[in-house]
Design brief:
The protein is of the alpha+beta class.
């Protein structure tokens, strides 16, 4: 189990951002690495698995799913199609197209009632089945009757042997590397081709698909609905045989429940398997122990359950790192992998880079994420096709559909449990996520827009034909026209292929479009099919709940939220909403603590909720929040801010110092330690002040360099202070603090000359006095607000407002804006703004001479 010491003491490689020139070199190397990968990795030799070469014919994906009104209708039909295709193959030995498989579906009058008509060939009478789904949407028993009916009608004379349980499969799948999963796929697919109604092989197929689905780690592109439906289809056919299910079926359904967000159901199945460990109805004891820990980690997120994780199986370590990432943060997951280097798998980077992560983590993982994903694509393609993926075939290959019945040229039809199509879908999603993450990191987090633009250019040139490419948003915040074009592309894809698109993009795109419309600008029409996710959560599940609309849980009744909690008792979002319902949004601090007791020992979000409940009690808040800080040392900065606000400077200094000592996000620390440096210096602790300032400067952030310069200036070392301010100008193309520094020290002749020269260049028209009351028309230049925070919202400002004056002086660009703020005689600053309605002025207190929001030049 990972200790507090391990969590709070990260390696220098992970914790410290590179300095100056090394930073720029690293970005250039990263871009060269990416460019080289895009044009050469397709030709790298990849060891083939010992299997016959398989060549999949390229088939264009049909529109298909846009005929359905809701997600559940599409998924129900997808399950029935999968069952019908496999049973038709058992009867005819043909592909669905050759056999003439047709499935028509309609929604019944009752909730969860569906009517299906399935036929084989033009002249066969359709088999009609009326189903009412119970328990949960993907429950295999929902479709057993249909599978029995089709089998008896289409393949009554087909032999249905049941192979003996392959008890080694449970241990083999505890190392779910791509090569291992492909080997299992080839073996099981061959067996099902020979005996298409073998119940044991269908159970193994479901287990394999579940193991494959556990590898998905694409964040906003995450989507395993197809895999869940295929698992359901295989398990339904197996149960239709009438024989008692084997341990493969039980373990497969435990994974199915885990992926569907049915935590209680998954854990109950594992308890049942544990009772039968080493018996014919259970798993071998060693395999049972490993799978039990992995499934427990997946459902509870309690990483403490795994002792000595560095020595565990790949299956357990994948779940362990996943739990660290989502129950603590990216730094904890990254720290573990830095200390204990793991296999070269794309999942490690994908998990760490999901959601928020630090700049230093981006340096460590962004490059290897792209490299690992491309290498896995090339390897998987070679394993299935027997040859290297050609230079111009990457997009075509990744657009290959996932089909379960295939026919190669001059070969008989065969079954494919996964096949290249499943891997293509997985890798396209994860590759698109990696592209999005890398661009966002370069453009926004690291702040190198030129490199971000070059990255976008190379990626677009090679991969714009990917089916999911329209969902990529590689546009700066200021690129309004490009953002509208992105929204239109995304909405067009959603309209044509709703089943391809995860919930995140449905909920996000219309919201952005509405924001554009609210500004009075031209925008694409709002997407009109938002009822596709109706209900938002598939019946009896909490599938994909973290990315689905939070208002879903808010809209549930008290009884309904209690039922959801019974399904997912370790979901922090469910626990939170249940508490709000029960206490009418006014729970006491002790009630909050009691509600989250099950998670408080390891889930940092739960720790934060409990701590915030005590915010009115500084002593109890500090105690509760400190527990969180030991898991997420970056939060010592927030604790320091809180203690300062509550006039506890000595306690605040201790909190800030702990951030200096332990927090992994060195850029964030460097940006927030000026008060601590002043605190030390003013108390005669000069050595401590310089130690912290040197750390801040080493991070090479703009504020870190500025902090060091401020201390040197205070210490009378003006030449050295000038050096650090010049580093800001060189690295970030910002000289406002340098000019202000020269202005403060104009008694120094060289400084005075530099000040006059720089201000003349900065204000070629001189510092123009301007009164917003006399301004009219739309400004031609100024500084646009492209982000908001509490300070600007309190002042009544909005995104898109344009700063045109500061303290009565005209502002035409960001450089002038920064200088006028830095040189303002008082932190109380009068801003002149233009909004689409009029010009106005507002007074805002900016003690650090920063509004703290993103801005851009008005063009």
């Amino acid at each position: 189990m990972i200790s507090h010491e391990e969590l709070t003491s990260l390696t220098a490689q992970n914790a410290t951002a590179p300095a100056g020139n090394r930073r720029r070199i690293r970005v250039l190397l990263l871009l060269l690495l990416m460019a080289g990968a895009l044009y050469s990795w397709g030709h790298k030799p990849v060891p083939m698995l010992p299997s016959a070469p398989l060549v999949t014919k390229q088939v264009l994906l049909p529109a298909g799913s846009n005929q359905f009104r809701t997600e559940e209708e599409w998924m129900a039909s997808d399950i029935v199609n999968a069952i019908a295709e496999m049973i038709a193959f058992a009867a005819t030995g043909k592909t669905p197209a050759e056999a003439g498989v047709a499935v028509r579906s309609s929604k019944g009058a009752r909730a969860q009632e569906y009517i299906f008509e399935a036929s084989v060939g033009e002249h066969s009478a359709p088999a009609r089945t009326q189903l009412v789904l119970t328990n949960y949407f993907w429950a295999p028993e929902n479709f057993v009757t249909l599978a029995k009916g089709l089998a008896s009608k289409w393949s009554p004379n087909v032999v249905r042997p049941r192979s003996p349980v392959d008890r080694e499969i449970f241990l083999r799948l505890t190392t779910p590397s791509p090569d291992a999963l492909v080997r299992e796929d080839l073996r099981i697919s061959e067996a099902l081709t020979k005996s298409p109604l073998d119940a044991e092989m269908h159970e193994e197929a479901a287990l394999l698909i579940g193991s494959f689905a556990l590898r998905h780690a694409a964040d906003t592109f995450y989507d395993v609905r197809r895999e869940l439906s295929r698992m359901t289809a295989h398990l339904a056919i197996a149960r239709a045989s009438g024989e008692e299910s084997g341990p493969c079926a039980d373990l497969a359904e435990a994974i199915l429940c885990s992926l569907a967000g049915r935590q209680t159901g998954a854990l109950e199945i594992m308890q049942r398997l544990e009772r039968h460990a080493d018996a014919s109805a259970g798993l071998p004891l060693v395999a049972q122990t490993i799978w039990n820990r992995a499934i427990t980690l997946r459902n509870t997120g309690d990483y403490r359950k795994l002792d000595q994780p560095e020595h565990a199986t790949l299956l357990e370590r994948l779940e362990y790192v996943n739990a660290l990432r989502y129950r603590i943060d990216s730094a904890a997951a990254s720290a573990f992998l830095v200390r204990h280097p793991a296999e070269n798998l794309a999942e490690w980077s994908n998990v760490i880079l999901a959601g928020n992560f630090s700049v230093s983590e981006g340096h460590l993982w962004a490059g290897r994420a792209l490299r690992a994903e491309l290498e896995e694509i090339a390897a998987a393609y070679r394993n299935y096709h027997g040859h290297t993926l050609a230079e111009g075939d990457w997009t075509r290959a990744l657009n290959t559909p996932a089909e379960q019945i295939l026919r190669e040229e001059n070969q008989p039809a065969r079954m494919a449990v996964l096949g290249w199509g499943s891997w293509a879908a997985l890798h396209q999603r994860q590759f698109c996520q990696t592209i999005q993450t890398t661009w966002t990191w370069l453009e926004e987090a690291y702040g190198v827009p030129e490199q971000a633009a070059e990255f976008k250019k190379k990626i677009t040139a090679k991969f714009s034909g990917l089916q999911l490419f329209p969902l990529l948003n590689m546009e700066p915040d200021s690129a309004t026209g490009s953002k509208r074009a992105f929204e239109l592309r995304a909405q067009t894809l959603i309209e044509a292929h709703p089943s391809w698109v995860p919930f995140h993009f449905w909920s996000d795109t219309p919201r952005r479009s509405q924001m554009v419309q609210n500004r009075g600008a031209h925008a694409p029409p709002l997407f009109t099919r938002l009822n596709w996710f109706s209900p938002v959560l598939p019946m009896g599940t909490t599938y994909d709940a973290p990315l689905r609309d939070s208002s879903t849980l808010c809209a549930l009744s008290g009884t309904e939220i209690d039922q959801v909690k019974a399904i997912a008792p370790y979901s922090d979002a469910v626990l939170y909403q249940q508490l709000q319902k029960a206490k009418s949004s006014r729970p006491t601090p002790d009630e909050v603590a009691s509600q989250f007791e099950v998670l408080r020992g390891y889930d940092t979000w739960a720790m934060l909720i409990v701590a915030d409940a005590y915010k009115g009690d500084p002593e109890r808040y500090e105690q509760a929040y400190t527990q969180l800080c030991y898991f997420k040392p970056d939060n010592f900065l927030n604790l320091g801010d809180y203690l300062l606000e509550h006039r506890r400077p000595d306690a605040a200094a201790k909190a800030y110092q702990k951030a200096v000592d332990h927090a992994p996000d060195r850029v964030a620390v460097s940006n927030n330690v000026r008060w601590l440096i002043d605190y030390y210096y003013e108390r005669g602790r000069r050595k401590d002040a310089f130690a912290v300032a040197e750390m801040a400067a080493e991070a090479y952030s703009s504020r870190g360099l500025s902090t060091m310069a401020a201390l040197l200036e205070k210490d009378g070392q003006l030449t050295q202070a000038e050096t650090y301010l010049k580093k800001i100008e060189e690295r970030y193309n910002q000289n406002d603090e340098l000019i202000t520094f020269y202005g403060r020290h104009r008694e120094n002749k060289p400084f005075a000359e530099a000040f006059d020269q720089m201000t003349t260049k900065l204000f070629p028209r001189g510092q123009e006095l301007a009164d917003v009351a006399t301004l009219s028309g739309i400004p031609r230049d100024g500084v646009v607000l492209t982000g908001m925070n509490e300070r600007t919202q309190r002042a009544g400002l909005k995104n898109g407002d344009v700063i045109v004056t500061i303290n009565g002086i005209r502002v035409r660009n960001q450089q002038q804006y920064r200088y006028l703020l830095q040189s303002a005689p008082s932190p109380t600053v009068q801003f002149g703004f233009w909004s689409p309605q009029n010009y106005r002025s507002v007074v805002i207190n900016v003690p650090e001479r920063r509004l703290g929001v993103s801005i851009s030049d008005l063009r």
